[in-house]
Every structure is written in structure tokens, then in C-alpha cells.
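Weekly puzzle thread! Below is a chain. First person to post its structure in C-alpha cell form gets bragging rights.
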Amino acid sequence: MIRLKHILENKLREQKPLGDIIRTGDKKDPDMQNLNVLFIGDTQTYVDWSFAKLLLRKRIVRGKIVAQPDISLPEMFKLLRASLDEKFDIVTIMGAADSDSDNDAGKAIRMLERIYKFSKQHGAKVIAITNPLKKFVQTKDEDEDKYPASIEIYDWISDQEYTDDVIDIGNFPRGYFERNGQDINPDGHRQIAKDWIDVVEQYEVRTDKKDEPEDEKKPEPGEIIAPAAIPSYVYSSDLITDADFNSSIEDQATRLIGRFEGFSSTAKWDVNNWRIGYGSSTITTAGGEVIRLGNNRNKKPDYTIDREDADRDLARRLHAEFIPRTVQSIGSVANSLPAGVVAALVSIAYNYGSLPGSVKEAARSGDIQRIANAVRAREVDNGGINKNRRNKEANYILAASKELVKTETVIKLKNLIQK
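Winning reply:
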């Protein structure tokens, strides 16, 4: 059995910029990195400095955040139901503040009970976080009972028996709150992250192989796992199951663009220009000459090429245009992103002509989940014509970030957490 506390706390103490995390093959924390965690909550989980984003950005765990500002508990339950189609090892729930000002705490308590029970039914460990008690909120005399349900909700969360553990933030000191006395500041969220680690330290990761299914044994340290061997329930995508995430940015981008764009031996009109090969507006001859197709829809270029010509043109454009442009646009953080993540961004830039602003901003943060979310959000562009492509690129980014082919922790933990 492996104790995880020292590993987690050391990572949390790292003060590197979030976009400057160097990923190497010599990982000291593979077991915890494989914990798949769902963080669900309201404004406090949604903010950029939240404890959940800190844990994910520091690569302490993997998973996702499902949170919205000022979300109600019924809306949170809907999001939870939509999210638990994926197997999570831990579900962490923070949210009840929307009910603090309600005179009927019972409604919030009944909904929280449903949320906790539903999470447990899916086999996850469930960690609840109490609501803050609003004792530092400045109120006028007439507003003395502005949060009538706060204490009752807090008491119930603290004493209920539906979750595996409870993190108490009700007695946080004033220094852990923003000026309004209500919202938790970055120092407070850092403390929540530390408390979360203390809770998870009670759990142990089973490493004995005798009880694991024969087809899901973890590889020996350093063993290379063929992507095709990755169970489909981990990442299901035709672009991922046979991907080589160890290959170069150029190789992965070539494969992605070729699959997305398809091949055309003759020119076809596309939006504002004639395109050929892999959706390119140019032809690169064997002698290195670059022929540019016109943008007059009434004059179709009279060229016929083969796949070798298309491959040559794509290689030139990736090397001279799209890879350097993409890397330059996202800055030094590109050096710390997995090659597959950058390759997917190159694919997006190739499709749009350059990275859309929202994707560029997300990429500069170095936050893998944020990058994937930004890419997925572009599925509505141009009437949703590229919805499928955007979602596959987002999935590829998430899969590539796990370094699936060079780490011991390829296979998702399945019923391995023991209390």
C-alpha cells in the first residue's frame, strides 16, 4: 500500500507559475495522478483560484470541474447526473451558499442529501465541504438575519452520514476571505486544498496485482503501453485509441489534420478560397515551388494531385507556418505542454487560419482542462458545422495530457481505493 500525503503536500507547496509546470517521464506521484476526481460546486469552485483548479493545475489529480456561479442546488444535481456517466474515484461537493438566505433550510438539506446519495451510488468516495458561516459579512442592523439558514445547513453537512468525509470551512479565520467577508480568497482555497489532501491521505491505493483483472494489470515501471491497449472506457475516440502521444508535434498534427480534412485530388471551393489536398489553399511541387489557388469562385483551378503531393504541402505548411505561429501565439507555456496538446492546437489553427482568441487565452494559462473546455466551446461556430471536430480535438487534448504511452499509470483506477 502506498501512502500519498507527502507526495501531495510537496506538489502543493511548489510555487512555480501554473503555466510553467515541467512534465517528465520520471514521475514520483503516478498513483495520485491517476485518481479521477469530479469537483462539483458553485461560485467558490468556479473561480480561477479555487482549490479544485489548484489541485488540477498542479497535476495532483486528474478529473474535471462542473461548477457555475450562483448555481442552485437543483441545478447542481442536474449537472451531477449528467457528469457521472464517467467513472470517478472521488466526488467532491462544495455548494449550498445559494440557500443561506432562504428561511427554509430543509429544502437545501433534502437536495444535498439527494446529491450525496446519488454520488455514492456510482461507487465514488464522496467528500463534502461545508458552507462558510458568513460571520465576517458586514450587515446592517435590519439585515441581521440575512442568512437565516446558514448555521442549520452547516450543522447538517457537518453531522450527516451520507458522505465519506467532510471538510469544515465554517470556522475559517477572517484572513481566508475577501473584503466582503463572504467569498474565500486564494489563501483560503489553498488551505482547502491542503485539507482535501489530508482527507484523501486516509485512502490507500492498492498496488498488489493479484486482485486485478488479468486484462487490466498495470505495466511494470517504464513499460511502454500501446495506445490500442488502452481500455475504451478510459478515452473512447477513433483518434485516440491508435494515437502515438510520444511522437512529435508535427507527426501528431499531420495525422489529426489528415483525418479531419480528408483528401481531395482536385480543387474544391471552401468558404472563401479554392482548397485541395488536405484542405489547403496551396500546392507544393516536388521542386519546392508553391502554387497558390485563387479565390475567384467562378474560376476553378485545373490541378490534380496525389497524396504524396498533399503530404508534401502539409509538411511545408506545418513546418513553416502553423507550428511556429501556434507556438509563438501561446508563448513559453508551449514548452511545458505535452506534444499532443500542441498538435491539437495546431489542428485548430489550421482549420481557422489562426487560434481563436478564447483558445489562445486558455492555452496561455497552461491549464489542460481549461484548454479542452475552450476548444469544446467553439463547437457552435459557423452553425456547428465543425462540432464533431472540436469535441474530438478537446478529447485528444485531455488524452494527450495524460501521457498515456509512457507512464505506469495508463489504466484508470477501478475500485482500487480502500479506506
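Puzzle host: Confirmed. Bonus trivia for everyone else. DSSP finds 14 helices and eleven strands in the chain.
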